[in-house]
């Protein structure tokens, strides 16, 4: 039953005993069971305990929770409305709910009645103590386990964060910026946590901090625990869906999901089983109708934005991860598509007992009703964290009730978004609108005042104290089996085979990757062949042959830089999949080399066939084969170099500039523009000329073409010039080793460059946590000298019992195993 609310909140004291009537008594009434000034009235008493329960407690949705069955409690137990409302059954009881009367007044009707009230499980819990029982000592629930902790006890992934602060240090005249400060919260299995706030409030920063993907120049302090332990949360431990859809546009939806399944599902699974999982995932995400359509590129019409977002989610739920992060999954989607996406996420959480944390900008009322917990941020501070259905009640208690028939999320953002101040200023200029504004409490204050009032109210509220208590309970839970989490269960060779197939398919369909370059190479070969057509063996042909060989060794390999845009897109996919633990670095590098080999051989042999026979270099197939292999080696080395640059500089424009500069240096030290013996010995001759492909390629090319030929002398009557004389005397090169050694050295450089690419990627992974720790410690020590920074950290702590902030690496776990 629900009693009528009193005229003043202090007139009555709400009480709730499980399986007994909720009766609000005046605070002045004597207790018939106790000498306490507070009392409770019930239908029957025996030895101070409730013995005659009601047939059924009040209901929401017409169902009764098993947790609301008879439970003996002291009759004078004092129950806070907030505690009773947040008492939630375990994962197996989500469909059942019990109404808790007296939680809100008719005026607010669960916090204003905005957005409609959804059916949500709740039940009474045993709680003792009076005021202060929410303190972060783990006894907030009177010795019982809180609802969130009950979810955590059920197994799965329970995430907690305490006093989380992220700072972007200033420098070069820039002020230090606090991105988020003093945040506390938790995410437990079976529930969906929504991180909401206006633009620039810190949603993405918090999400990246929790998932281990924070930018390197951001200092992070605080504590993030997974199942009560410090752990690195990237590279396969958790799944992360980015706001940007990072997909290979040349593949179809089914191919994308199938390749992902083959990369991550156990190798022991039969092909039919993998296909069944793929089909089930497509059905689950509503992608069956577009399964055979391409995702889309500039030359291929693809699927819609909503379908791309659902596909991105489908790739991460294939292996049913225990912990899933999503960065604004509803961004850019219409209301129907957004509802479909969030409904699917909620179903994953409910049915699979998974922990889901998602940032969201401004959801519709239907979407908002699907979230279990809400973390509302503004200017990096927490405005509210707790059960989403109680957020409207908190705002009403603070003096900003949600009007009826208004979307709660719109109301929350209206209170904390400073952009509305401009709208309010405009309204004050109109007499009619000014009169209407008098009725709106939000227009009486600036957004800054409202936000500060909400933040201050939350910090000292029962909501914040209960979050602290719940975090403490979750972190001390024992006996929760922590499974060994791996991003992929496929064997290394299966990963290699799958990646090679996927990469080859992508390269063969992407016009930018190789096909346009093949056309350009053929055109350039024709131009080169016509310019140097039948160059002959005259004296002037010596310079012509050297120039043609230098152009082939330099510029035609330089054109491999045209594949850099495709490298960047592929590296985005690799970075995301690698962080989610889909496969190892070695498998990716080798598969890329194997899949690109047919295209690079086509480029080399097609352009070499045209150029070699039109120019009429030294006749013989073996000489032609050397010429083509020499060109292939140079092109492959440049491709490897550009891949290293794409790993170091993921920016498209900066990568092109850096790549062009490095290749230019290689050309300068190749021995064409200045002879190798004339290069400065320090640095340029040793070691630069030996670690660039140009010098080896040019020497091998000259030997392949000139040795065995004779050229006309400069003056008639003089002896003919042999190719050996030209190489040693005119070009200053040695004939102590054969051309095949020069060719072999190019392939040694190819291997060395690929190995360097591997080392760069692995060092970035392994060294990042240590670099972050060192950087954080140094920066925090420097920032602590500033009074403003110390003040900010102090105000985030609500109790002296809390530990001071400490530097953390990427989730502080430095020893997590990562597959190669």
TrEMBL record:
Gene3D superfamilies: P-loop containing nucleotide triphosphate hydrolases (3.40.50.300). It comes from the Eukaryota. It is a multi-pass membrane protein. GO terms for biological process: response to salt stress. The chain crosses the membrane at residues 514-535, 547-568, 588-614, 621-646, 652-676, 740-761. Residues 94-105 have a biased composition (Polar residues). SUPFAM superfamilies: P-loop containing nucleoside triphosphate hydrolases (SSF52540). Residues 31-41 have a biased composition (Low complexity). It is found in: Membrane. GO terms for cellular component: membrane. CDD domains: ABCG_EPDR. The keyword Nucleotide-binding applies. Residues 159-404 form the ABC transporter domain. Keywords: ATP-binding, Membrane, Nucleotide-binding, Phosphoprotein, Transmembrane, Transmembrane helix, Transport. InterPro entries: AAA+_ATPase (IPR003593), ABC2_TM (IPR013525), ABC_transporter-like_ATP-bd (IPR003439), ABC_transporter-like_CS (IPR017871), ABCG_dom (IPR043926), P-loop_NTPase (IPR027417), Plant_ABCG (IPR052215). One of its GO terms (molecular function) is ATP binding. Belongs to the ABC transporter superfamily. ABCG family. Eye pigment precursor importer (TC 3.A.1.204) subfamily. This is ABC transporter domain-containing protein. It comes from Paspalum vaginatum (seashore paspalum).
């Amino acid at each position: 039953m629900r009693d009528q609310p009193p005229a003043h909140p202090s007139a009555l004291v709400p009480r709730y005993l499980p399986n007994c009537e909720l009766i609000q008594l005046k605070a002045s009434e004597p207790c018939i069971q106790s000498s306490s000034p507070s009392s409770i009235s019930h239908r029957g008493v025996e030895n101070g305990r409730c013995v005659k329960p009601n047939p059924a407690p009040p209901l929401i949705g017409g169902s009764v929770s098993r947790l609301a069955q008879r439970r003996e409690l002291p009759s004078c137990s004092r129950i806070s409305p907030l505690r009773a409302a947040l008492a939630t059954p375990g994962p197996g009881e989500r469909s059942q709910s019990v109404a808790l009367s007296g939680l809100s007044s008719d005026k607010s009707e669960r916090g204003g009645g905005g957005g409609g009230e959804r059916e949500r499980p709740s039940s009474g819990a045993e709680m003792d103590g009076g005021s202060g029982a929410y303190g972060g000592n783990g006894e907030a629930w009177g010795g019982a386990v809180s609802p969130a902790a009950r979810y955590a006890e059920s197994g799965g992934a329970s995430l907690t964060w305490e006093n989380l602060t992220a700072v972007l240090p200033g420098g070069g005249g820039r002020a230090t910026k606090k991105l988020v400060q003093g945040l506390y919260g938790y995410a437990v299995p079976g529930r969906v946590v929504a991180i909401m706030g206006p633009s620039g409030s810190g949603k993405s920063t918090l999400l990246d901090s929790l998932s281990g993907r924070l930018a390197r120049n951001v200092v992070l302090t605080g504590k993030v625990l997974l199942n009560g332990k410090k752990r690195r949360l990237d590279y396969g431990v958790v799944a992360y869906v980015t706001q940007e859809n990072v997909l290979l546009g040349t593949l179809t939806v089914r191919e994308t999901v199938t390749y992902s399944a083959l990369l991550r599902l156990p190798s022991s699974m039969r092909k039919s089983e993998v296909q069944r999982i793929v089909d089930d995932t497509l059905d689950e995400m509503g992608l069956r109708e577009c399964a055979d359509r391409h995702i889309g590129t500039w030359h291929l019409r693809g699927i819609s934005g909503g379908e791309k977002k659902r596909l991105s989610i489908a790739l991460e739920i294939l292996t049913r991860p225990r912990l899933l992060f999503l960065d604004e999954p509803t961004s850019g989607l219409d209301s129907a598509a957004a509802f479909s996406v969030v409904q699917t996420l909620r179903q994953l959480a409910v049915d699979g007992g998974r922990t889901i944390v998602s940032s969201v900008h401004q959801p519709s009322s239907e979407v908002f009703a699907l979230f279990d917990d809400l973390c509302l941020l503004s200017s990096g501070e927490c405005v509210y964290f707790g059960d989403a259905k109680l957020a409207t009640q908190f705002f009403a208690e603070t003096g900003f009730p949600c009007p009826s028939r208004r979307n709660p999320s719109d109301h929350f953002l209206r209170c904390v978004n400073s952009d509305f101040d401009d709208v309010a200023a405009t309204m004050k200029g109109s007499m009619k609108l000014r009169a209407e504004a008098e009725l709106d409490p939000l227009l009486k204050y600036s957004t800054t005042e409202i936000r500060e009032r909400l933040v201050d109210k939350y910090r000292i509220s029962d909501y914040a104290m209960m979050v602290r208590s719940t975090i403490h309970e979750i972190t001390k839970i024992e006996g929760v089996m922590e499974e060994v989490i791996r991003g992929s269960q496929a064997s290394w060779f299966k990963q290699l085979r799958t990646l090679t197939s996927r990469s080859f398919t992508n390269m063969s369909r992407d016009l930018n990757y190789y096909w346009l370059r093949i056309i350009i190479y053929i055109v350039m070969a024709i131009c080169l062949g016509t310019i140097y057509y039948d160059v002959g063996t005259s004296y002037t042909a010596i310079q012509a042959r050297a120039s043609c060989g230098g152009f082939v060794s330099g510029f035609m390999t330089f054109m491999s830089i045209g594949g850099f845009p495709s490298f960047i897109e592929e590296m985005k996919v690799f970075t995301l999949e690698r962080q989610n633990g889909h496969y190892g670095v070695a498998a990716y590098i080798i598969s890329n080399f194997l899949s690109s080999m047919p295209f690079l051989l086509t480029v080399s042999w097609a352009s070499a066939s045209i150029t070699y026979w039109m120019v009429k270099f030294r006749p013989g197939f073996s000489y032609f084969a050397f010429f083509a292999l020499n060109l292939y080696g140079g092109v492959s080395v440049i491709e490897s170099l550009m891949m290293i640059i794409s790993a170091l500089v993921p920016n498209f424009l900066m990568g092109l500039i850096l790549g062009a500069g490095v290749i230019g240096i290689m050309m300068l030290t190749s021995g064409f523009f200045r002879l190798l013996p004339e290069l400065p010995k320090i640095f340029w001759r040793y070691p630069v000329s030996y670690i660039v492909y140009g010098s080896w390629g040019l020497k091998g090319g000259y030997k392949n073409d000139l040795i065995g030929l004779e050229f006309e002398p400069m003056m008639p009557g003089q002896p003919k010039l042999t190719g050996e004389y030209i190489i040693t005397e005119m070009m200053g090169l040695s004939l102590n080793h054969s051309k095949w050694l020069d060719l072999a050295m190019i392939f040694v450089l190819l291997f060395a460059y690929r190995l360097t690419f591997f080392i760069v990627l692995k060092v970035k992974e392994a060294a990042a946590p240590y670099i972050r720790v060192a950087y954080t410690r140094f920066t925090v020590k420097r920032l602590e000298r500033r009074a403003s920074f110390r003040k900010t950290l102090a105000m985030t702590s609500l109790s002296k019992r809390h530990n001071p902030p400490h530097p953390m690496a990427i989730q502080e776990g430095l020893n997590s195993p990562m597959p190669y």
